[in-house]
Amino acid sequence: MAPMQATFSFLAAENLACRRGDRLLFRKLSFRLEAGAACHVTGANGAGKTTLLRALAGLTTPYAGEVQRKGALDLVDERTGLDPDLPLGKALAFWAKIDLDSPMMFDAYCERLGLNNLLDVPMRYLSTGQKKRAALARMMIWGADIWLLDEPLSGLDTASQALVSELVREHCSYYGIALIASHQPLDVPGMTSFAIENFAPSDAEEEE
Amino acid sequence: MILALLRRDLAQFFPFTGSGAALPTVFFVAVAMLFPFAVGPDANLLAKTGGGVVWIAALLAAILPLEKLVARDIALGFFDQLKLRGATEEAMMAVRLLAHWLSFGPPLLLATFPAAALLKIEGESFSILLLGLLAGTPGLAAIGLMIAALTASLRAGAALSGLLLIPLALPILIFGAGALARADPVSLGFVGAISLGLVAIAPFAAGAAIRAAREN
Fold this sequence. Notes:
The complex is a heterodimer.
Chain A: E1 10-20, E2 23-34, E3 38-42, H1 49-56, E4 64-70, E5 73-76, H2 88-99, H3 104-112, H4 128-142, E6 146-150, H5 158-173, E7 177-181, E8 192-195, H6 203-207
Parallel strand pairs in A: 3-7, 3-8, 5-6, 6-7
Antiparallel strand pairs in A: 1-2, 1-4
Chain B: H1 2-13, H2 23-39, H3 43-63, H4 66-69, H5 71-76, H6 78-84, H7 89-118, H8 123-150, H9 157-181, H10 186-214
């Protein structure tokens, strides 16, 4: 699972501003994460965490500013990308076929996330927490350099929450980068954090 | 990645493997079966009007799979994940177009045999009908894909896509059914040309549409 070329990967935002509809969510947001760094983004519902992550992933165009990165980037949010009609094993196997070099690791990742007994169950019968773990398994299978995690802990039981922290710690020790938007604390030593509200425009600016 | 994607898309849309994907073909045959009951068993009348009915049935059958064609995978975050892996929206839509046509065109052509038998279409008209559908279904699939991508983020998208497809498919219908009425194979060339043009622009139009759908 060691990310390739990990020592060189980075993720940086410069003067980033994003809108949703007509509303400016945040502006003048700059940061730079070097290989091995983890960062925790906090903010109330609707503050713009998801919008930030999607802009960083390059899925939406920011209103202003620039995102720079080197290395493969994976995003885990509430949408799993796994076919609801397929059994979990087959849905994961589709991504494994694209992402994974050694099929041996597939079982190891599934076991680690406690999915081994669920591989024959269609995705749509899985619970919220099980779906979340399936999405994390998809992320592990790819092993991209940069992980963007949107509420990775929601819906997970205590043991699985600890597992997420453990995965992030491991990822960073292999020179991966993790940016986590979450309301709950994660147990990752050396993790920086910022609140997205600090970059919200003041009322005066919004008038303009 | 393209091959894995094509295989997945095909598995999803192909009759009997995908969920309810045989419906358009069944619908198509059902229309051809009902028509003789409605107008009576007069073989001359059937042979004269049957070709047009087959074309209308094909057009309506093309509307049925649109609902699941794009919207489902947007909601699933499937295209987002492909995008993160470096695939372009245009490539995703080109693969989807191919899979959509393969799961809808050839079964429809096969179903034309029983449909034509029910409607007493024989001889030269039958071969013109078959060739016309062969030339026209890629165009119908391309229009369908563009509309499905454009309406994917709308709430009433499914109903709207049906309404949108009908006027856009008119040129194919006019030349395709016209070739039958005048027993004139030249019109089939027009159908093929329209289809080719639509197939050429569809991946770009649909790709731009799903990119735009992300922004809100």
